[in-house]
Specification:
- By secondary structure, this protein is of the alpha/beta class.
- Helix content is about 35%, strand content about 20%.
- It contains 31 helices and 32 strands.
- The strands form 5 sheets. Strands 20, 21, 22, 23, 24, 25, 26, 27, 28, 29, 30, 31 and 32 form a 13-stranded mixed beta sheet that branches. The chain has an 8-stranded parallel beta sheet with strand order 12-9-7-6-3-2-1-13, sandwiched between helices. The chain has a 6-stranded mixed beta sheet with strand order 14-19-18-17-15-16.
- Helix 24 links the parallel strand 23 and strand 24.
- The longest helix has 23 residues.
- It is globular, with a radius of gyration of 32 Å.
- It holds the Pfam family Glyco_hydro_3.
- InterPro entries: Acyl_CoA_acyltransferase (IPR016181), GH (IPR017853), Glyco_hydro_3_C_sf (IPR036881), Glyco_hydro_3_N (IPR001764), Glyco_hydro_3_N_sf (IPR036962), NagZ_Beta-hexosaminidase (IPR050226).
- Keywords: Glycoprotein, Glycosidase, Hydrolase.
């Protein structure tokens, strides 16, 4: 091929030609439009991105590419156009043609095979097919590391969550493409693998990891691919916010492109910006200014996907930037030389004007089809099959019915269904940051799957879809009929209705099975495998990594035993399956406020961010100060507290934290939590072991308690997620805790306090029993209150009352007195959000902006206990309304009190089980179950 870099054509000295070479553009339509012709002929455009909106068949693609190159040749272009395509396989294929183009698994699906050789072969086959139709560059491989795998939109487009494994498979794919004769473009630098989304479509997704964290994780595959000869790099359009960098758009920042990518990582190839037509970017900066900023930052090719008017605006903006002296001609020449060097690797006029076309694809197709079948079969992964339900051919009798339940999801951009619908949707490249799968009317996506299963079952198949409307009567009827149910999910972690539906169906099947009816449930994730990867309540769980027609065909063969699935989930979960982790002893150190405070704050925020959407995080609103009680006891001595950490002494990062307190002969563990990235490594076990040993060394310990009301962060084991709560209880049971008689504690709330009205008859009921209710502040009559609490509650609740009495401005105590002798029969704390107590009760901050609180009702058991509690709560609600609170939170409600308060209009915000045990029963040795702590608590 030609090597134009050595002796540049004089034409490149003309500014218009040099500028045109620095743009990468797309267009609408399956034929050459006047707009794209104008860009090539009049503006000397040098690179084109084709997407699904341009491509119908392999033959049409080859003709379109050849026509574009002919236009450029006739217009006097010294070198051919760079013509690129997204062809990631799985769900992201711009070119679809059943007759000539083979479908292969997604990046994660290929990695699930465990074979780097297959990764190379698949990429090589894909590259050869693109080469045959005239494409000379592929927008790949994807090198993102799924640092937060469950909730990121990239999903199966990325290899997985292990940086080294992503590197290995990315480099294998890169070499496969290059050996097929096309150039490569890694993406999405510096990583789309752990993004925060802040709300509206104009909000930029944000990277919050520090450069050190990125360097140890997300940047590893990019660094390794650069070392192995990556040709080009796409720089993302995300923001970066950390201690050392505050970048609004990565591709417009010289800190990211020049400093990080070129200087730190040593990349010398072509850098490509994210599409500057992204709504957030164009809204924040504008395309003209954005184009200048991208080139200033170090981008060689500026991408603009479709709007001709915007593309002209970008060209004029770059010209104006040069005329104004913001960008030098020399800077443009630097990019030009990189681009020409890239083109010299993959194209020449001989090749560009004479694509191999259909004849070559016909030759390649049989071998590629066999490779596709082999790879899909090897990618199918059975994560669990507790009941040995698979293959169905062994467990489902011929006369029994099989039910298929499928979600309504939008077809993949390049698929038979989409081709039939001709939907005209924007490409995935243009809308990479999908937050949830779109819902479509119709059931075309999984119709062929149903037909394939019906053929296997000779018609003994029931098939219906499900939506956000949940389990309907039709589903219940079909579940009752069927002996086995195959339930499909597609990104259930981001489409929460699928998660809820699946758990509901699983519960129904469990109940029906317990009643003697055969109900075999097989859950199949056809996109992100993380839907139920860690949920052992789903006993049989299969992953396919995409829902293309080819993947669904492989699934049917796997379900009915035509081959034995050998796939494994890539990344850290595969490693945990392959190797039985040793039970490590982690060095546990005592908490040091000055040293560890910042690390604890970062750990809390990390756990908050990784909490499943829609699930309560008990740490929400808490800070490092929330655990440092330092409150005086009734004797004037401080409550004894000792906290522990597992940390990285080099970086000062905390991997885990545990808080303990001692008062009045009770040793209490207030919280144990571990960095989500460090779970399953025995950190929680090491902390628990050290905490128990520390408590038992204190003189006079009569009881150990798990969970406490002050600090009121974890009142016990969180039970909002019942399956996870049950798992945690088993873990503690294996370490000596008594789980047979936990104390149930609740946090309740009234969210719209201004509209709340007491239930009919409540006031009359309270008045009939003649209890006297009053409100006190400060130390007045405090001794009687403290005596009452001391006799009927634990020491931490007593300290909570003492703190409330010390804060008369924001706190008060409501007392209920017997009409007979004036003795106290109940007390409760009421307070405003601004009380210092909120430090130790973070729910007051997490529940909203204007919160009033009712805390720790202490009502001894009696025939009138319910009416006393209602009276205390009623007075507390009235005080909160008087202070114009929007929300009322009622904390530390005991189990037998919950229903009474729910009848007043409260809802459950969170639920806990407080455990206790005798000191001699708790394990101090390093043993227990293999079910190591993996969630927020413990």
């Amino acid at each position: 091929m030609e090597s134009p870099v050595e002796d540049l054509d004089p034409l490149w000295k003309e500014l218009d030609w040099a500028i045109g070479a620095c743009f990468f553009m797309g267009f609408d339509g399956t034929e050459v439009t006047p707009q794209i012709r104008t860009l090539i002929v009049d503006h000397h455009l040098g690179a084109i991105l084709l997407t699904t909106k341009n491509l119908k068949t392999a033959q049409q693609t080859a003709s379109l590419v050849q026509e574009l190159q002919t236009i450029a040749h006739n217009a006097g272009h010294p070198v051919p156009l760079l013509i690129a395509l997204d062809q990631e396989n799985g769900g992201v294929n711009s070119l679809f043609d059943d007759d000539y183009i083979c479908q292969f698994p997604s990046a994660m699906g290929v990695a699930a095979t465990g074979s780097l050789e297959l990764a190379y072969q698949v990429a090589n086959a894909t590259g050869k097919e693109l080469n045959a139709v005239g494409i000379n560059m592929i927008m790949g491989p994807v090198l993102d590391v799924l640092t937060n795998a469950r909730y990121q939109p990239l999903g199966v487009r990325a290899t997985g969550d292990d940086p080294q494994e992503v590197s290995q498979y990315g480099i294998a794919a890169m070499n496969g493409y290059k050996d097929a004769g096309i150039t490569t473009c890694g993406k999405h630098f510096p990583s789309y693998g752990n993004l925060d989304f802040l709300g509206s479509s104009l909000d930029m997704p944000i990277i919050t990891e520090t450069l050190e964290q990125l360097s140890l994780g997300a940047l590893v595959p990019f660094r390794n691919a650069i070392r192995e000869g990556l040709d080009a790099m796409m720089v993302g359009g995300c923001a970066i916010t950390n201690a050392s960098m505050n970048v609004m758009h990565a591709c417009l920042s010289d800190q990211v492109v020049d400093d990080l990518l070129r200087n730190d990582l040593g990349f010398s190839g072509v850098t490509i910006s994210e599409c500057l037509e992204m709504e957030a970017l164009s809204h924040d900066i504008g395309v003209r200014g954005g184009t200048v900023m991208a080139v200033e930052a170090g981008c060689d090719l500026v991408l603009l996907c479709r709007s001709f008017a915007v593309q002209l605006e970008a060209i004029s903006g770059l010209k104006l930037g040069i005329e104004n002296g913001m960008i030098s001609r020399e800077r443009i020449q630097v990019s030009l030389k990189r681009i020409l060097q890239l083109k010299s690797k993959c194209t020449s006029w001989q090749k560009a004007l004479n694509p191999e076309g259909i004849s070559q694809l016909t030759t390649l197709h049989p071998a590629h089809l066999a490779l596709s079948t082999k790879t899909y079969d090897k990618s199918i992964t059975i994560m669990r099959d507790k009941g040995h339900l698979l293959p169905l051919s062994n467990t489902l009798y011929p006369d029994e019915e099989l039910l298929l339940l499928t979600p309504l999801v939008k077809p993949l951009p390049a698929s038979a269904v989409t081709q039939a619908l001709s939907s005209g949707e924007p490409s995935l490249h243009e809308k990479w940051s999908h937050r949830s799968s779109s819902i479509m009317s119709g059931e075309g996506v999984f119709r062929e799957l149903g037909r394939s299963l019906a053929r296997q079952r000779h018609g003994k198949l029931l098939h219906t879809s499900y939506t956000a409307n949940g389990v309907r009567p039709v589903h219940e009827n079909l579940i009752n009929r069927a002996s086995a149910i195959v339930l499909i999910t597609a990104d259930a972690n981001r489409n929460l209705y699928q998660n809820g539906f699946t758990k509901h169906v699983a519960m129904m099947c469990s109940m029906l099975s317990a009643g003697g009816k055969k109900k075999s449930l097989i859950v199949v994730s056809v996109s992100s495998p993380y839907d139920f990867a860690m949920d052992k309540a789903i006993g049989t769980y299969v992953c396919t990594f995409d829902f293309t027609e080819t993947a669904m065909s492989a699934l049917v063969r796997a379900l009915f035993g035509e081959f034995v699935p050998q796939g494994t989930l890539p990344g850290t979960l595969r490693k945990s399956k392959k190797v039985q982790k040793s039970r490590q002893h982690w060095l546990v150190e005592s908490w040091n406020r000055d040293r560890d405070r910042r690390g604890l704050q970062a750990l809390i925020k990390t756990i908050e961010k990784t909490s499943p959407p829609g699930q309560i995080c008990a740490l929400a609103g808490s800070t490092a100060s929330s655990f440092e009680l330092s409150a005086p006891s009734e004797s004037g001595e401080p409550v004894e507290e000792a906290h522990f950490v597992v940390r990285n002494s080099s970086t000062q990062a905390l991997f885990g934290f545990c808080s303990t307190y001692v008062h009045d002969g009770i040793g209490m563990i207030g919280a144990i939590f571990v960095d989500p990235a460090k779970r399953n490594l025995s950190i929680g076990h090491s902390l628990h072991q050290r905490a128990v040993r520390g408590l038992l060394q204190k003189p006079g310990i009569k009881k150990l308690q798990l969970g406490l009301g002050l600090p009121g962060i974890y009142l016990g084991i969180p039970m909002s997620d019942l399956s996870e709560g049950a798992r945690l209880k088993r873990w503690f049971a294996n370490n000596g805790w008594d789980i047979t008689s936990p104390r149930l504690l609740y946090t309740l709330t009234i969210r719209n306090l201004s509209n709340w009205q007491p239930p009919d008859g409540l006031l009359q009921s309270i008045q009939r029993v003649s209890f006297a209710f009053d409100l006190i502040h400060g130390s007045e009559n405090s001794e009687t209150v403290l005596d009452h609490v001391r006799a009927n509650a634990g020491p931490e609740v007593l300290e909570l009352y003492r703190l409330a009495l010390d804060d008369p401005k924001a706190c008060g105590i409501v007392r209920a007195k017997s009409p007979v002798d004036g003795a106290l029969v109940g007390t409760v704390i009421i307070c405003r959000q601004e009380t210092p107590l909120a430090t130790y009760l973070p729910v007051l901050q997490a529940a909203g902006d204007s919160v009033g609180a009712i805390l720790a009702p202490v009502v001894p058991s009696s025939p009138q206990a319910s009416i006393v509690l209602q009276g205390l709560a009623l007075l507390g609600i009235r005080q909160n309304k008087a202070h114009r609170a929007n929300t009322c939170v009622l904390n530390w409600v005991q189990g037998d009190e919950r229903d009474t308060l729910l009848g007043m209009g409260f809802d459950v915000l969170d639920a806990f089980e407080e455990l206790s045990c005798k000191p001699e029963t708790v394990s101090q040795d390093f043993h227990g179950s293999n079910d190591w702590c993996t969630d927020m608590l413990w």
